[in-house]
Amino acid sequence: MRHYTPSVSSISSSHVGTWKIFTAATYGHISIVSKLGVVAVDHWGNTSFTALARLFFAKSVQHAKVGAILLGILMARDRNIDRILMASDSLLAINLLQKGENSTWEGGSILYDRLDTATKMDQCGFPI
């Protein structure tokens, strides 16, 4: 597993009025409880909000990772933040979201929920 320590410049978003949201998730294979984490920072790098949640009965690691991304999008929307850049610890989850309805992933119905929520924002990007 690759570990990444972000630099200050990569933590903040480059545009005023845009928040960067970092997400992570753990998958509970035995306990069937996954843990989701979200941290949002503004364009100065100041923490705007954090969230922790449990996701029961996730079918796979990717379900948990995509669930964390949804949590970040929903938390931003609840705070009337409509310009975000998402960052995840799962490149596969980001790629699945970018494929959208063209995805052949078995959890594809979850993607539709995420994409429907994201389209209600002015900007929701998934930089790689």
What does this structure look like?
33% of the residues lie in helices and 28% in strands. It contains four helices and five strands, in the order H-E-E-E-H-E-H-H-E. A five-stranded mixed β-sheet has the order 3-2-1-4-5. The protein is globular, with a radius of gyration of 14 Å.
Key words describing this protein structure:
alpha/beta; 5-stranded mixed beta sheet; 4 helices; disordered N terminus
Question: What topology emerges from the helices and strands here?
Answer:
Blueprint: H1 8-11, E1 19-26, E2 33-41, E3 47-56, H2 61-78, E4 83-88, H3 91-99, H4 108-118, E5 123-125
Parallel strand pairs: 1-4, 4-5
Antiparallel strand pairs: 1-2, 2-3
Helix pairs in contact: 2-3, 2-4
Q: What is the makeup of the main sheet?
A: 5 strands, mixed
Spans of 5+ residues with little confidence (pLDDT < 50)?
Answer: 1-9
What percent strand?
A: 25-35%
Counted beta strands? 5
Helix and strand run: HEEEHEHHE
Chain-averaged pLDDT = 76
Q: What's the oligomerization state? A: single chain
Rg (C-alpha, Å): 14 Å
Amino- and carboxy-terminal Cα gap = 18 Å
Taking strands numbered 1, 2, ... along the chain, how are they ordered across the largest sheet?
Answer: 3-2-1-4-5
Q: Helix/strand-derived class?
A: alpha/beta
Helix content: 25-40%
